[in-house]
Amino acid sequence: MKIYWIPAQAPMRVLALVKHLGIEAELIRIDPVAGGLHTPEYKALNPNKKAPTLVDGDVTLFESAAIMAHLCIKAGSDLWPTENLTEQVEVLRWLTWNEGHWVGAVGPYYIEHIVKKTFNMGPPDRELLAKSGKNCVKYAKVLDAHLAGRDFVAANRLTIADFALASMARYWREAEMPFEDFANITRWLDGLEQIPAWKNPWPDEKAA
Ligand SMILES: N[C@@H](CCC(=O)N[C@@H](CS)C(=O)NCC(=O)O)C(=O)O
């Protein structure tokens, strides 16, 4: 099994899961700055020219949520529930909410503060961020209310929905996301940091 990754939040979710479940995979780091996502070979695997991508025998997948589900099924892990379909629908709801709302809410902060720093793309656009607060707060209210009395997003235990929703939000302090009034979100994020594979999702240097 091969997993193509770059040091960014969507591949990070998948790498954390690989580590957490102890899955054997060849982890292939791509250099996006050197055009690694735009080669004909890579585009044949992922026409979006994004990471992550998984190749497992005849199966080639893009989209981190689908890749995480595939990995759980392979490893027999209920981080993607396959026995209890009510739980599966609950996880699916939050994965969908993530792509439909949450990524758009926290994404500007993540991109301006974290992506730009990682890839030497200059300072954050503070004008853009000033316009992003309202949308971020709108959806943070939804998530914070849901997390009241809960340690995890779905099914009362760790699922791939937690890794999906937390992958940008975990940087909330350095990315200046307006979460000060959302104690349930910050408690949930701090709780996830206790999971070793989440705290350090990246492959060892020699494997990277
Ligand atoms: N919804 C996709 C997002 C994939 C995505 O946007 N990947 C980013 C990294 S987080 C990427 O490859 N960016 C490189 C680029 O746009 O050049 C997923 O979950 O896999």
From TrEMBL:
<protein>
    <submittedName>
        <fullName>Glutathione S-transferase family protein</fullName>
    </submittedName>
</protein>
<dbReference type="InterPro" id="IPR004046">
    <property type="entry name" value="GST_C"/>
</dbReference>
<feature type="domain" description="GST C-terminal">
    <location>
        <begin position="84"/>
        <end position="208"/>
    </location>
</feature>
<dbReference type="InterPro" id="IPR004045">
    <property type="entry name" value="Glutathione_S-Trfase_N"/>
</dbReference>
<keyword id="KW-0808">Transferase</keyword>
<feature type="domain" description="GST N-terminal">
    <location>
        <begin position="1"/>
        <end position="79"/>
    </location>
</feature>
<comment type="similarity">
    <text>Belongs to the GST superfamily.</text>
</comment>
<dbReference type="InterPro" id="IPR040079">
    <property type="entry name" value="Glutathione_S-Trfase"/>
</dbReference>
<dbReference type="InterPro" id="IPR010987">
    <property type="entry name" value="Glutathione-S-Trfase_C-like"/>
</dbReference>
<dbReference type="Pfam" id="PF02798">
    <property type="entry name" value="GST_N"/>
</dbReference>
<dbReference type="Pfam" id="PF00043">
    <property type="entry name" value="GST_C"/>
</dbReference>
<dbReference type="GO" id="GO:0016740">
    <property type="term" value="F:transferase activity"/>
</dbReference>
<dbReference type="InterPro" id="IPR036282">
    <property type="entry name" value="Glutathione-S-Trfase_C_sf"/>
</dbReference>
<dbReference type="InterPro" id="IPR036249">
    <property type="entry name" value="Thioredoxin-like_sf"/>
</dbReference>
